[in-house]
Amino acid sequence: MLKIRLKRMGAKKNPHYRIIVINSTTKREGRPVEELGYYNPKTKEMKFNLASAQEWVKKGAQPTDTVKYLMANCNEDGSLNYKKSEEVKMSKKAKAKAEAEAKAKAEAEAQAKAEAEAQAAEATEATEA
Length: 129
Hints:
This protein is of the alpha+beta class. The chain contains 3 helices and 5 strands; from the N terminus they run E-E-E-E-H-E-H-H.
């Protein structure tokens, strides 16, 4: 059975990978059937032949979970469409404080809006009288 998986290259604590098609019983650094591209997880740099990978999948090759992710987030030119998460992780205390501030702000806005409506109503009554 053929697999599309990553072949580790690079120095210690500085990995980069080649995306390869290889027999599933072959060791990780074994000779591949075909090299489809490369991926550097530290710099998020990638070059990937997506069309060839899709052909191998049609022939029955099984991509690993990581390669499935890379295939799903690959641009037309073979580069990675990386979306950095903008969500900031906060502690429970910080979340509670932020929620309380948001609630207080919403109440202040509602009160200001009610006062503005009341002043507008008084102004319309004064002009009518």
